[in-house]
Every structure is written in structure tokens, then in C-alpha cells.
Amino acid sequence: MVFTGKHFNPDLCAGEVPVILYGMSDSGWMDQELIPNWFSNNFLRHVITSRPLLLMLDDHSSHYMLELIKSTAENDVVIVRLSVLSILLLLLVKLFVLSILLLLLVRLFVLSITATLTGI
After folding, report:
1. Residues 26, 1, 36, 68, CA torsion sign
2. Could you write out the DSSP letters of every residue in 68-84?
3. Cα-trace Rg, the chain
């Protein structure tokens, strides 16, 4: 979680989920100082150990710095760069698939209730 500001206040994280990595940047977005720390201390610690891994990132410049590229190569992680349009399309596909699954679950629930009420 990235906060906006210059000085990090650890009290903001008191009682939060321990696996979340906290950072601070001027913009409140990931930057070239935060991403190597996130990759090494969060991503690699919480992913499966089998390799290679695929890491999909948007096309923000902070994601494509030499230190991160070297670290991904050393850890057998492949970066795929997605444009904003690609990410939007993936989100729409996800929304569509989840909507269909929700409709199917509702249909099954209605059929189950109907069968219970009619004694079938």
C-alpha cells in the first residue's frame, strides 16, 4: 500500500494485515524506489516456488528499471508489459465471466429452492 507524502508514519499501519508492504511516494503511486522493495520483499515471498513465473505489469515507467529487470531474470520471473487498454479489456472479460458465473449460481439456487418447495 503506497501512501502520499514525504515522511512515513508507521502508526498508519498499526493493526493491519502483516503481509501488506507499506511505502510512501510523492505521488502516492509505485515509483522506482518502491518497486524493487515490493518485488523482493513481497512478491517473491508470497508466490509459489515453481518457476518460471509470469508477472503482468502495466506500462508505467517505474516498472521497467534495470534493477527490477535484473532481479526478475535472476529469479526466473518473466515480465509481460500490458497497455492500459489491455488491462481494461482483461477487466471487462473478468467482469463478463464473473457475471455469467453469478447468473448460473442464482439459477441453481432458484432451482434448488423450487425443488425443495415442490418436494421433488
Report:
1. negative
2. HHHHHHHTTEEEEEE-H
3. 21
pLDDT at 1: 66
Dist CA 32 CA 65 (whole Å): 7
What pTM does this model have? Answer: 0.61
Answer yes or no: is pLDDT of 12 > 80.
no
51-99 pLDDT, tens digit each: 999 998 888 877 778 888 899 999 999 999 888 888 899 899 999 999 9
* Secondary structure (3-state) at 108: helix
Separation of alpha carbons 67 and 71, rounded Å: 6
**Amino acid at residue number 13:** C
| Signed CA dihedral, 29, 35, 37, 43: sign only | positive
Task: Supply 8's cell numbers.
Answer: 512515513
C-alpha cell at 89: 479489456
Distance CA 9, CA 57 (A): 28
